[in-house]
Amino acid sequence: MAAEWCQPFLIPKKILSRQRPREARKVLTPLPGLFDLALVPQGSRPRLLSDAPAGAECRMDLMPAPIMIISGTNRANSNALRISKIVLGHYQSAKIAAELFNLEELPREVFEPSSYLQKPAAMRVIQQRVLDAQGLHVITPEYNGSFPGVLKYFVDMLKFPESFDRKPVAFVGEASGVWGGLRAVEQLQMIFGYRNAHSYPDRVFIPQVKDKFDAAGNFTDAGINERLKKQAIGFECFIRSVCNIASQPPPV
After folding, report:
1. Which residues, including other chains, have CB under 8 Å from residue 233's CB and lie 6 or more apart?
2. Closest CA to 102 of 138, 131, 135
3. Residue 138 CA, distance from chain mean position
4. Which residues sit opposite 137 in a β-bridge?
5. How many domains in the chain?
6. Distance (Å, rounded) from C-alpha 243 to C-alpha 44?
7. Which CATH number covers residue 216?
8. CA neighbor of 201 nearest in space, from 242, 158, 152, 159
9. pTM of the predicted model, to two decimals?
């Protein structure tokens, strides 16, 4: 695989001010207006792909914890799960640590009304996976002009505010209609924005998803498949960008 470079991301200055001392922010290249160029200090650009030289920043295979892919419905044999497995494959091919969580795996007892006050043991394990994840990659269908209710319930069951606070999140929408889950994704972004998550700007929408698989279950849209691959690779770099902002020490 040929080496590539992360693309710079525009991070709002208010995010920088929350996460880094004023002195540390001075090493970033400023842009006019509301944004700063916030990838790596002093103009360096880290290699992204796994064949970068040893010690290079933004190495995929050095990700300390996995990205959590969330298949956003508990419907059996869902298209969201099929797309989630494709995304997982792209992460694995790029040697990025990732894991898949299917909402079908939610324990039945979590739907008891008492779960709002006392989480079942199985849900506490899932909660820890969310907290440990470097980022969340949400694949959502569109049901009735929105995302599935079980996905909102899953969000409601997770700890506030730490589950999503400053957590990088990427989104894929899929639907039978021509808009590819656009409304579902934008409504999700509103919720994650309220929870102070960092939304990755490169979203992928898959319209008429039922027509994207052949009789053997293979995904047939090469263009969208390439976009999913680029999204996965770019999201890892976005996570690095956010982490660099949060962890960069002040210059001596």
Report:
1. 4, 48, 49, 60, 90, 94, 96
2. 138
3. 6
4. 69, 170
5. 1
6. 15
7. 3.40.50.360
8. 242
9. 0.76
Q: Say how far residue 12 (Cα) sits from the centre of its chain.
A: 18
Residue 137 lies in a domain: yes
Of 86, 27, 30, 93, the residue nearest 213 (C-alpha):
86
* Tokens encoding 142: 């569109």
CB-count burial class (<10 Å; 0-12, 13-18, 19+) for 183: middle
Domain that includes residue 70, residue range: 62-234
Tokens matching residue 55: 């010690």
Give the tokens for residue 247.
């962890």
Q: What is the pLDDT of residue 137?
A: 98
The Cβ of residue 95 has, within 10 Å, a number of other Cβ atoms equal to: 15
Write the CA distances from 131 to 68, 81, 83, integer angstroms. Answer: 10, 22, 23
3-state secondary structure at position 94:
coil
Report pLDDT for 95. 95
Instruction: Using CA atoms of 69, 18, 63, 234 in order, give the dihedral in degrees to the nearest 10.
Output: 60
Residuewise pLDDT in 10s, the chain (252 residues): 323 435 444 444 444 444 444 443 333 333 333 333 333 333 433 333 333 333 334 444 445 689 999 999 999 999 999 999 999 999 999 999 999 999 999 999 999 999 999 999 999 999 999 999 999 999 999 999 999 999 999 999 999 999 999 999 999 999 999 999 999 999 999 999 999 999 999 999 999 999 999 999 999 999 999 999 999 999 999 999 887 766 666 655
d(CA 146, CA 143): 5
Find the DSSP H helices in 181-221.
182-194
129 part of a folded domain: yes
Alpha-carbon span 164 to 161, nearest angstrom: 6
